[in-house]
Design goal:
Layout lengths: L11 H24 L24 E3 L4 E5 L2 E4 L12 E4 L1
Antiparallel strand pairs: 1-2, 1-4, 2-3
Length: about 90
Amino acid sequence: MADIPAETRPDRSRDARFAWIAAGATLVTILIANFAPASGPAPVPRPAVLSPADDPGCREWTDSCRVCTRGTDGVHCSTPGFACQREALRCTGR
């Protein structure tokens, strides 16, 4: 192989310097993101809302896919349909 003249050779030292700068910047960004304290307002606690399944006064509830009933021997739920699209739980019987 013929010797390549110096003026046409790629400058590998510049490429290596750029790679080290990029790696350093990435490392600094990751360190700052992991160790900097989070800013912003503290979360406001929401009042506890009972799900119909957790509400002892609710005897029957549904999510539009299955119906659950609370009896003396425990909770029993129907099997959801094939193309069921669930919604929020709601009490249907007290």
